[in-house]
Amino acid sequence: MVRKIVVIGSGAAGLTAASAAKRRDPEADVKVFTEDEYIAYSPCVIPWVLEGKLTWKDIVMHDTSFYTRERGIDIRTGTKVTAVDGTSKTVTADGTAYEYDALVVATGGSVFRPPITGVDLKNVFVVRTIGNGKEIEKAMKGSEKVVIAGAGVIGLEMALSMRHRGKDVTVIEMFDQVIPRIADKDIAEHVQRYLESFGIKFVLNEPMSSVCGDAEVKWVTAGNKKYECDMLILATGVRANLEIPRMLGLDIGKLGGVVVSNKMQPYRDGKLVDDVFVAGDVVQCESAVGTGPTMSQLGSTAVKQGLVAGKNAAGADAVSGAVASPWVTVIGDVHVAGTGLSENLAAQYGLKVVSGKAEGFTRARYYPGGKRMTVKILADADTHVMIGAQLIAGEDATGRIDWITEAIIQGTKAEDFLAHAENAYCPPTSMVRDVVISAVDDLCNNLKR
Amino acid sequence: MVRKIVVIGSGAAGLTAASAAKRRDPEADVKVFTEDEYIAYSPCVIPWVLEGKLTWKDIVMHDTSFYTRERGIDIRTGTKVTAVDGTSKTVTADGTAYEYDALVVATGGSVFRPPITGVDLKNVFVVRTIGNGKEIEKAMKGSEKVVIAGAGVIGLEMALSMRHRGKDVTVIEMFDQVIPRIADKDIAEHVQRYLESFGIKFVLNEPMSSVCGDAEVKWVTAGNKKYECDMLILATGVRANLEIPRMLGLDIGKLGGVVVSNKMQPYRDGKLVDDVFVAGDVVQCESAVGTGPTMSQLGSTAVKQGLVAGKNAAGADAVSGAVASPWVTVIGDVHVAGTGLSENLAAQYGLKVVSGKAEGFTRARYYPGGKRMTVKILADADTHVMIGAQLIAGEDATGRIDWITEAIIQGTKAEDFLAHAENAYCPPTSMVRDVVISAVDDLCNNLKR
């Protein structure tokens, strides 16, 4: 009998799950329902498209006919799932009920809209879909002053993109630093100063308190000050889309995501649900640093979980481990990356943290074209286990943060890392002792104190 | 009482040890004896200097007065140690006997000269010191045809350097592939084809059998064929310099290096020697993949071991773990890297190997400027533990090979890596699922067969 697999959502988790399921069981009937118009693109690239480095056409890798033709997957775009019934195992869309043997819920998240007046005015945008991006692009033509609410990674990427397009840009952030949740203040200040060098303005320590205008946004307020703008971009974080999970009665965790097992199966009243798999931004999963649940909400995590959800929906027994959630962004000429806990997050969990830091270069000190690199590594003061890191470099941050992530996921003590870690060396690509190892050396010295 | 520390050798291991010892015990009397004229440079960069990308001046980071002034270390260049007495604990140089409390032996290695006639002719060179490099530079002026004996990493770097300087270049290698010891044939062929695209010629599967000429080299022979040249560069591997270790009666291992503990202490008749530490190319150390002793002979390993030797010579209790010996080179626009065992090395140890491979890009598929990347990962067919990897990419190979190295050192099974590994993602710096993880996915599929 043909296995019927239904996927709800066409983001990184949903499409990956659909392809993985079909690869695992080529006979399966795989259907994807999505409200989106475009599929198979990375929302993370939108700031660069708006900056003009790529076109919308560049970033859409496939259309639905590709999936039908090449992978035998039936994708229904612009289609809202109106009902899901976990007992009869049906998904209803466009008035038709479709049966499933296995259901993958990959409904993703939506940008959080602060509960203040005016956020529904014209020229107030979020950055989530190509549709959002095209709206922003259209509005940019008549826009001079842009306010970005939220100084997280997306907010900063959008700020520089708009600045590069000649706009007057102000970023408003309620916390006292940029990238407040996942970066430490010393690293964040470095990034902020760099963005200020392009003429971007920052208002920190003040939440945006109102959005004003008649039909269109004219100004926002923060800390009793008024900031004029003709465009407001909300980069205020992402919340899980829980409508479908709630229809299924799935357990929602304290962080607002669907609780899942390492096989990406959800729970109902504390019991595993066998025929449903959940992946991506809608999920709350375990942290690899042992601090309980976390919302990863990264494209890379969505793909990793989507693969496991898709394979398992097609009868496999794959697992996806706890996450350290490494991230990287490129701000102008600077790569900024991190993994695991920041000092702020560690403090929230009541962890006492010791850090180490080193500065150096991405190539041998004397080799032409090398860029500065700063690495900061955090360890639990009690156990000495490495729990987080951040890195700023003019190039090649990504592989290095993945390297540290591997050590963090394996629960490595700083002293053990120092004893065993090795780096490949060639003058055009690294220092003879990589800055990552020097940072851990500093960390070990600080742990001794 | 002031601790007297003597270091023999001023390469990466020796100078690192001297500095580490002084940092650990600022009161110590630290002396370095070296036959070299120049110190504090990376021999690895010589091919790029000869190509014209840097000058000799660029690559010498410090002179002896820097070490005296800034670090309080007394360095005697151009000074041969003529005797070492482990009983009276003295080192003799320039006719004077210097007492030591702790001795660091970092005598490095020398290029192996094949035992054939003619290798002592004029215009036959090795690439090991700045002195060697300057000799080559001088001879290049009148040279048109260059033969490189040995297609290892140094041989290939020199081949491309000479080719970029307009020479007719032929590489002769006794094995049937380039980078024969540490790269697999499929990866090596890729590198060879790329070098051939510059016009470099290869003679494989034939050892160089004679070097001919009157005073100067005129041709070499290999497989009964004659290859004309006015310069011959021997890139025929490095052998440990054992003169000093033999004076001390230290145990020499079966691979021809000094056997050491993880504290970099040598043995005499199987017993640990307390007051001597050995580091760098002269050392035989344990392999992280559990196959017994290995000769790492990398600059990065020398620094790692030198740090531990230096700290311990000054009374610390540091350790240096077993090594996977990650390496990287840049050949034209291509970064080639590896770690752990190759298929050839694994076969020598009688290991049955399964491999996985993936191709992709260094950035998101659609992002401008991304380069191709191929990753191959090897696992032990019985245990599924990852034991080696190789990577070719147009950029950013180094951090990624360090990442895989960390997993290999920790003895990670392929399936466990696939379940837990995460990569940071941003369209300008990586694919949403890094090629490294895709390669391990392929490996896991192949292990199931």
Describe what this molecule looks like in 3D:
- Two copies of one chain form a homodimer.
- The first copy, chain A, has a five-stranded parallel beta sheet with strand order 3-2-1-7-21. Chain A has a five-stranded parallel beta sheet with strand order 9-16-10-11-12, covered by helices on one side.
- In chain A, 28% of the residues lie in helices and 28% in strands.
- By secondary structure, chain A is α/β, with parallel strands linked by helices.
- In chain A, 55% of the residues are buried.
- In chain A, helix 1 packs parallel to helix 9 and helix 12 (414-420) crosses helix 13 (435-448).
- The longest helix of chain A is centred in the C-terminal third of the chain and has 15 residues, at 299-313.
- The radius of gyration of chain A is 23 Å and the shape is globular.
- Chain A is built from 13 helices and 28 strands.
- The interface between A and B is large, with 72 and 72 residues.
How is the secondary structure organized here?
2 copies of one chain form a homodimer.
Chain A: E1 4-8, H1 12-24, E2 29-33, H2 46-51, H3 56-59, H4 64-71, E3 73-76, E4 81-85, E5 90-93, E6 96-99, E7 102-105, E8 109-111, E9 124-126, H5 130-140, E10 145-149, H6 153-164, E11 168-172, H7 185-196, E12 201-203, E13 208-213, E14 217-222, E15 225-228, E16 231-234, E17 238-240, H8 243-247, E18 258-259, E19 267-268, E20 271-272, E21 276-278, E22 283-286, E23 293-294, H9 299-313, E24 327-331, E25 334-340, H10 343-348, E26 353-361, E27 372-380, E28 386-393, H11 397-409, H12 414-420, H13 435-448
Parallel strand pairs in A: 1-2, 1-7, 2-3, 7-21, 9-16, 10-11, 10-16, 11-12, 18-22
Antiparallel strand pairs in A: 4-5, 5-6, 8-17, 13-14, 14-15, 19-20, 22-23, 24-25, 25-28, 26-27, 27-28
Helix pairs in contact in A: 1-9, 12-13
